[in-house]
Write a structure and sequence with these properties.
This protein has 133 residues and is mainly alpha-helical. The chain contains 6 helices and no strands. The protein is elongated, with a radius of gyration of 29 Å.
């Protein structure tokens, strides 16, 4: 028997001088059985809508944009769509679709703004580049 377990048993016994002796091993086994037999959640809770997590609509730094999209590049290669369909809740799928649709709208606006800026630029050096430092 491990010395720590023996010491714990001694402390429990000493704390209950007039009562029944508590079998720590039995209590531990019962607690472990309760944990093992407890129902397990089938899915993790769905995240709340993104709009409830954002503090406000204030602009973020350009660096945050660059870092976000650099990290997301190629994410789709790491997931099996059929597995996602089986594992995600309807709310999680809807959140993903909402983000993708909003992203596509911003991408169209960004492309149009870039094209206007390039048309207005007098020389190629006037066109800026986004760079993460």
């Amino acid at each position: 028997m491990h010395p720590s377990f023996q010491r714990a048993r001694q402390l429990v016994t000493a704390a209950q001088p007039d009562g029944d002796v508590v079998d720590v091993a039995k209590l531990a086994e019962e607690a472990l059985a309760r944990i093992k037999n407890a129902p397990k959640p089938k899915r993790r809770p769905s995240p709340t809508a993104l709009t409830s997590r954002v503090d406000g609509d204030e602009p973020w730094p350009i660096r945050a944009f660059v870092v976000t999209w650099t990290e997301l590049d190629g994410w789709w290669r790491h997931f099996d769509v059929d597995e996602l369909a089986r594992q995600l809740s309807d709310a999680e799928i809807e959140m993903f679709l909402h983000v993708v649709e909003a992203t596509a709208q911003v991408a169209e606006r960004l492309r149009a703004a870039r094209d206007i800026d390039r048309a207005d630029a007098k020389t190629p050096t006037q066109v800026g580049n986004l760079r993460a430092l």
